[in-house]
Amino acid sequence: MESVMSQAGEVEAAPRWVFTFGDGRADGSAEDKELLGGKGAHLAEMSRLGLPVPPGFTISTEVCAAYYEHGRKLPEALKPMVDEALAKIAKITGARFGDIDNPLLVSVRSGGRASMPGMMDTVLNLGLNDQTVEGLARLTDDRRFAYDTYRRFIQMYADVVLGIDHGLFEEILENYKNLKGFELDPELGAEDWLEIVARYKALVEKELGEPFPQDLHEQLWGAIAAVFGSWQNARAIAYRRLHDIPDDWGTAVTIQTMVFGNKGNNSATGVVFTRNPSTGTNELFGEFLLNAQGEDVVAGLRTPQPLTEKERAASGNGKESLEALLPEAFATLKAACAELEKRFRDLQDIEFTVQEGKLFMLQTRSGKRSTQAALKIAVDMAREGIITEEEAVLSMNPAQLDQLLHPTLDPNAEMTVLAKGLPASPGAAAGEIVFDADEAVHMKAQGHTVILARIETSPEDVQGMHAAVGIITTRGGMTSHAAVVARGMGRPCVAGAASVHIDLERETLEAGGVTLHKGDVVTIDGSSGKLIKGRVTMRQPELSEDFATLMKWADGFRRLEVRANADTPADARHARDFGAEGIGLCRTEHMFFQEHRIVAMREMILAESQEARRKALAELLPVQRQDFIELFEIMAGQPVTIRLLDPPLHEFLPHGEEAIADVAEAMGVSVALLKRRINVLSEFNPMLGQRGARLLVSYPEIVEMQARAIFEAAIEARKELHARVTPEIMVPLVAVKAELDIVKERITATARAVEKERETSLAYQVGTMVELPRACLMAGEIGQSAEFFSFGTNDLTQTTFGLSRDDAGRFLGEYAEKGIIHHDPFMTLDVAVGELMKIGVERGRAVHPDLKIGVCVEHGGDPETIGFCEKIGLTYVSCSPYRVPVARLAAAQATLKNQR
Ligand code: PEP
Ligand code: MG
User: Fold this and answer.
1) Which of 481, 574, 848, 859 is catalytic?
2) Could you tell me what percent of the chain has a pLDDT over 90?
3) pTM as predicted
4) Comparing C-alpha atoms, which of 736, 730, 768, 766 is closest to residue 751?
């Protein structure tokens, strides 16, 4: 075998690369995640806490970097450090690597800074050869166990380190069992496993051209190199892309004394969450397999047993719980769970093994959880005093909060339930079934909504799971790959629906006596575990009390105000229900989108004379006034920013013969005449044409009508509300101060007229959208006339990039693929746009230190953008009503992070 060591790295010059743990001590701690990876750092911490951790050591992520720097070779200087660490283990355990009387067996596992479950490689039971296996047999007085362990090791090592397909080993075992008439592994005795070992070794020799390595150090170094090497396997790379994990972080490698969950019926291996990761309920949640080893639970190959008596009663599957079977180990586990939660101040996902009645902790990490659970856990932990309210607010991912606002099944809907599985990740989704992960990605790209149906999922399926709106599997438990990954992604998931039969070849799914084919629509409910035929009507969720509590805490911390963009009374009601503190943008042209109103609006735009336009405007006035009254009343005295008309003409001119005929009739002109008028008004670049302030300068009668409607509505509403109503009137697309001045003068004149007619006085503000680079640069001047600014980052992005809002979609995808841009700038604020905003804020506030400045587009609901808005000192952000909770949370986090 080619050496895996490089000559680089002198012993003297090498930094510390190996960190031991065990026996109540550790070189590292939880703070060393960067160096030791999550697994290594947490093992060190558990050891420090005095929890029962099998002793071992972690090789740091720096060695991973060195390994790749030296062409996939490990530095020579690592060797003595590893030898020293092995000696330390020997001192603690009495077992030595290669000792025939008391052989040390270890696991070799990966562990990066960020958890990448199942993406990299692991080797278990390392330390066995033809001699030590006999030693193990004598030591344990269990020859069957020793040879079973040896065959497991050969198979895993051959697969991970030597690159021999593990299916070939499975085949040998299956053939042997058939030959001997065995059905299950436990039926095989010592001599059988001995025979299997011989056959496995023969297979390796045949495939490799040399025997299975008997040198234990060669095995160890081979495994270490292979685990470092798995950082760059295709699965791990794809996972990092999906989760934005940098390639240069690298993995650490942890080598740990083996403990055995397969040493009879007082041994077990399992997984426990310190709280329920689906609901957040504060009770242990987990499963285990009796007399089993290693990855069997996570792999979902055997059906696990419930951990607690309570879970057993709830599941009704009749299998005994760990609590009942091994009460002492369970009690130690329960106490360790509480301690670890307190120490890490978070839900923990723990792997454990019980060896002959004694509990060992193998891993602890932050547990993935559903959004509902995240919310409940954050609020509960703050109330229990484990974390502070600030920490609770910071712990929630604002983007995930979105899921709480997603639909659930309408309980009154008619539905044909085809099957029931485990409710693995909450939420409901409907889509076309596909049976293959790549197909899911492909179909999504073509605009389909898909449900991914698999027998079980593996890390190769992760991208397909991401592309799907929901996932269903027929095998595996609540901690199976599908369940864990779907919860983390926030995808609804039904796992282990055993009565469903999936035929991958024929691409069919049989359930409840029905055969469905690829492309047929189903609904899944990850909260109840149901698979339902067809599409079921869904309902918006009721927001829980925990949600209200967390939002209240967030509101207490945040500095930025959060408003909503709302164009209609219905939007305004949503905005208020989601906790908006006002309306940041009412696009008045959108008030005319309904069919019966658009004709009047078009009539107004197409009018040839001022007289005709005034006639059309007179029709619009009462409609606008009524809408504004409702908006003001719904918002009950909160600020309402109304933007004067900004219709890019291509969006509002009639297209098609029927629409043209309708408008012609309403205007009392011929179709031919109207077509001529449309031609006259047509622009080459309507987005850069006569819209916004430019339109208002040319047609001041529009300003007069809208200002009048606003003022008259304010007078009505304040009578009704018995409260102040102070409309904020906003002028769009201003580039030059004089544009604003001209429009403002009309607004003021209208206010005076209304005040006189109604014998009252009006309170209002006039401000402007800042949505052109020129407006940002000239903010000092424009600020002299504006009482507030509101950044319109749609147009600002469009004009900064010179990128048409309406056409960019065609090529932005390709740009992202080619790495020219990383984010769609219309979704995540671009740095250059941010720079212009900064200039706008500085120059505007230079003349008006208290100038109220907001941002009023979807960017206003993007957590990253909100962080930026906090930094540059904006007064408020405004986004669509459904994103208001996200914005409130993100704004609180931005304030808290800024204070740190
Ligand atoms: C903007 O340009 O960012 C904006 C809010 O206005 P609209 O999207 O209506 O152009
Ligand atoms: Mg705009």
Assistant:
1) 481
2) 72
3) 0.78
4) 766
